[in-house]
Design a protein that fits this description.
Strand content: under 5%
Shape: elongated
Number of strands: 0
Structural class: mainly alpha
Radius of gyration: 15 Å
Distance between the termini: 12 Å
């Protein structure tokens, strides 16, 4: 289902711009939340850290691929949505932590936007 590379670059649609912004915001929040987790310490947080690392990386890559109109961007958006779902779930395991809840919200928003973009012609 990989799309052909466009021959000319049209301006990004509002939907794509919003998705790129959601990806970059999620990237930032995941990085900040990882830093917070490191300060908390504890081995029990390793599954959360792994999920956050995956989301931080994939959201940045996904935004980059959308901006350059990669023919793989649709597939990357779907993978990004899945990674963000996993991170949101991991963060929800600590409902007493405001930073974790903010991260879960950002991940859910990014997931929704990426899932919608995965079905859109870029």
């Amino acid at each position: 289902m990989t799309q052909q590379q466009p021959t000319t670059m049209e301006p990004m649609s509002r939907q794509m711009q919003d998705c790129v912004q959601a990806c970059m915001a999620c990237h930032t929040v995941c990085e900040e939340t990882m830093s917070s987790c490191l300060h908390m310490g504890g081995e029990a947080k390793m599954p959360i850290m792994r999920a956050l690392m995956d989301s931080a990386e994939i959201t940045r890559i996904c935004a980059d691929m959308m901006m350059r109109r990669s023919p793989l961007a649709n597939e990357m958006c779907m993978m990004c949505a899945q990674a963000c779902d996993i991170s949101a779930e991991a963060c929800m395991s600590m409902p007493e932590d405001d930073r974790m809840m903010a991260c879960a919200d950002s991940c859910r928003r990014c997931s929704e936007m990426c899932r919608a973009m995965a079905d859109t012609r870029m």
